[in-house]
Automatic annotation (TrEMBL):
Family membership: Belongs to the protein kinase superfamily. ADCK protein kinase family.
Gene3D superfamilies tied to this protein: Transferase(Phosphotransferase) domain 1
Gene Ontology MF annotations: ATP binding; protein kinase activity
UniProt-recorded name of the protein: Protein kinase domain-containing protein
UniProt organism field: Protea cynaroides
Domain Protein kinase span(s) in chain numbering: 214-544
InterPro entries named in the record: ABC1_dom, Kinase-like_dom_sf, Prot_kinase_dom, UbiB_kinase
Length: 711
């Protein structure tokens, strides 16, 4: 669906003093698919002295009645959806074989369309060339931007979608082009009302006036595949948005995809620099567009998206009215909002654009990496800021899914990038299905190192997504990569979101905004792949990197779903599991180091707190160091102690912290493996402190005896 900048309202059934809500449900619910907003209250005739609301007294329905209403509502909804699916039974699906069969026998029509595209784009390119040669390129930007929008509009839906993508990229297009191309999102030419209303009646099998008590006399907005009207349902009074498909749209996009697919064959055959299967990418995109033509499928997509992601208070997904939906007509809840790239209008409502952008990024990360089901077309016309501060997602025609293995591989890829582990980064491309298992990744490693060593001179959070995409793109072109179709849609989705973020703040960094989510997943997700990634991030050369853990906790706490308790359980399971011997060895070594640092740190603090005169009398020394160790060693030990205390402070001050969360540790310590682990740690600590004491008594050189081999 498109951006709808008018008011949202909720309607109630017409008054009838003797009518109960159960009677209303029998009349309305089978049509609307859901009960009106008053579904959780019961309307009864008004007794004397009772509070009135119109002709009804409002009283809360008890739990049992509410459950019955909810069950009846679900049943009605399922029945209405089944009827909608039956109406869309003949919806078209993408088939390259049928398109080839259809257009191979129509060479004149194919030639005419080819010439139309070449003339339209070629003329525009020629004008740009003339402007550049004459030195008027900047002077004519506004004129050329308007011309490009008109060219895309004339060439039809396929090119409109290309223009929509460009309209969200301020790093690619000048502001004049962005402003003009943004009109392609909801300001396209409309088609006659008579055709739209006739389509509604034909698709739903009912006269228009029996469906709506009112409908806007002209479209509120028009997009590439359809146009939208604002209406009020006659049955329930609900204000809704009604999207009606453009006539003959299948014919238009079918011919375009036939031509584009032919171009893809030529690219695969003659353009060596592009190693991906272009035809496969075109086929995937075409399937998604054809799915957009089936509005029942779009409604089902919206329902699934709502179930997965609208549990967050800052995300809104409109309801679908199934009995007023078919293959070419979609009726959904009306949403009042402002497009996400209209910064001034958003701020006038007292909202912060970056808060909404961050909500979109966090929701998108959940889409891409948690459930794998994602909105593949999030241009500004499909993302609205509501007056309540929620981010509303619209238009669920183009959706895609990330395979489960790839989701974890993407998170692992970020860890490997942070660690600059380019060998592991190269191996990730197997899991991402970029490379077949028989391809040797060793030649790819130097190319990754050359790019990221330069790019990571600043912190990872300072990188923007476009920099990484461009850099990886240069690597992909040099080696036998095959970019899967789902990944191409991920790139499109993320680049669009970054483009929206740059509207609000040119210095915005998507990776920095994504850090809290990645940190939370690494600390709390029990998936074995992510547990291994966490160990890889925290341990290096047998030493624990407390600064990494501290950074993860600092970032993870920024995610409102982070819980210290959730971070504890997976680590315990991993540590004490049957395959955790290597990790236990590392943990024992680190536990000895940390305990020594804390104990000796306390001794140093106590010693330093004693006045100099007493220190001389009691200890017969004037040195500021109470122990035999070098200054650098003491400094390193104190820093370790302080890091550990900071990490504990972060855990202790976490929002969901409860001392009871330490109880599982006590329970685990009862296990034989845990007791053995504890004994080994205690033995290591005893040996280490004994060595320190012996050194102190004998005043041996500053070298500390190492007991690591004995551990």
């Amino acid at each position: 669906m498109v951006a709808l900048p008018l008011s949202y309202a909720v309607g109630y059934p017409p008054s009838s003093s003797g009518m109960m809500i159960s009677e209303l449900s029998g009349i309305c619910a089978w049509r609307a698919g859901v009960l009106p907003r008053a579904a959780l209250v019961e309307a009864t005739p008004v007794p004397a002295g009772r509070e009135r609301s119109g002709n009804y007294a409002i009283q809360v329905v008890d739990g049992g009645s509410r459950s019955a209403l909810s069950s009846r509502n679900r049943t009605n909804d399922m029945q209405a959806e089944a009827r909608a699916m039956a109406r869309a039974a003949n919806a078209s699906v993408y088939s390259q074989e049928l398109l080839a069969l259809k257009y191979n026998s129509r060479p004149i029509k194919v030639l005419r369309r080819t010439l139309e595209i070449l003339i339209g784009l070629g003329t525009f390119a020629l004008k740009l060339l003339v402007d550049e040669r004459s030195g008027h390129l900047n002077q004519n930007k506004r004129v050329r931007a308007t011309e490009l929008r008109r060219v895309f509009t004339r060439l039809g839906p396929t090119f409109v979608k290309i223009g929509q993508g460009l309209s969200t990229r301020p790093d690619i297009c000048p502001p004049e082009y962005l402003e003009e191309l943004s009109e392609l999102q909801d300001a396209l030419p409309t088609f006659p009302n008579a055709e739209a209303f006739s389509c509604i009646e034909k698709e739903l099998g009912l006269p228009l006036d029996s469906i709506y008590s009112s409908i806007s006399p002209s479209p509120i907005a028009a997009a590439s595949l359809g146009q939208v009207y604002k209406a009020q349902l006659r049955c329930s009074g609900q204000i809704v948005a009604v999207k009606v498909q453009r006539p003959c749209i299948e014919e238009a996009i079918g011919l375009d995809f036939y031509l584009i697919r032919g171009l893809g064959f030529l690219i695969n055959k003659y353009v060596d620099i592009i190693s991906s299967d272009v035809v496969a990418l075109i086929d995937e995109f075409a399937r998604r567009v054809y799915q957009e033509l089936n509005y029942v499928q779009e409604g089902q997509n919206a329902r699934r998206f709502k179930k997965l992601y609208a549990d967050k208070e800052d995300v809104l997904v409109p309801e679908i009215f199934w009995d007023y939906t078919s293959g070419k007509v979609l009726t959904m809840e009306w949403v009042n909002g402002v497009k996400l790239n209209e910064q001034e209008a958003i701020e006038k409502q007292g909202l912060k654009v970056l808060d909404l952008v961050n909500a979109g990024i966090q929701c998108s990360l959940r889409q891409l990496l948690e459930y794998g089901y994602f909105h593949a077309d999030p241009h500004p016309g499909n993302l609205l800021a509501t007056p309540e501060g929620k981010l509303a997602f619209l238009d669920f025609g183009m959706m895609s899914e990330t395979p489960e293995e790839a989701r974890f591989a993407i998170i692992g890829h970020v860890v490997h990038m942070v660690n600059r582990d380019y060998e592991a980064m190269a191996r990730d491309y197997y899991a991402l299905d970029f490379l077949s298992p028989d391809v040797d990744v060793s030649p790819i490693v130097p190319a990754l190192r050359n790019f990221f060593d330069d790019a990571l001179n600043s912190s990872v959070s300072e990188l923007n997504f476009k920099t990484i995409v461009d850099g990886l793109g240069a690597v992909l072109y040099q080696y036998p990569f095959n970019v899967p179709a789902y990944y191409a849609l991920i790139l499109r989705s993320l680049t669009v979101l970054e483009g929206l973020a740059l509207y609000a703040d040119p210095n915005f960094k998507v990776l920095a905004a994504s850090y809290p989510y990645f940190a939370k997943r690494l600390l709390t997700d029990p998936n074995p792949y992510l547990r291994d990634a966490l160990i890889e991030l925290l341990f290096k050369d047998g030493r624990f990197r407390w600064n990494r853990l501290e950074n993860l906790l600092v970032q993870g706490r920024k995610d409102r779903d982070f819980s210290a308790k959730d971070a504890l359980q997976p680590v315990l399971k991993l540590l004490l599991g049957p395959g955790g011997e290597e990790l236990r060895y590392l943990v024992i070594k680190e536990a000895v180091r940390v305990t020594e640092a804390i104990v000796l740190g306390m001794m140093i603090d106590t010693y330093n707190s004693i006045p100099d005169i007493l220190r001389t009398v009691v200890f017969n020394v004037t040195t500021p160091r109470p122990l035999i160790m070098s200054g650098s060693e003491q400094e390193s030990m104190m820093e370790l102690r302080n890091q550990v205390l900071r990490v504990w402070g972060l855990l202790r001050t976490s929002e969901a912290f409860d001392p009871a969360l330490l109880q599982p540790i006590l329970q685990v310590l009862q296990e034989p493996e845990a007791r053995n682990l504890g004994q080994r740690v205690l033995g290591g600590i005893t040996q280490r402190l004994a060595a320190r004491l012996l050194q102190q008594l004998l005043r041996t050189p500053t070298t500390v005896l190492s007991t690591s081999k004995k551990l």
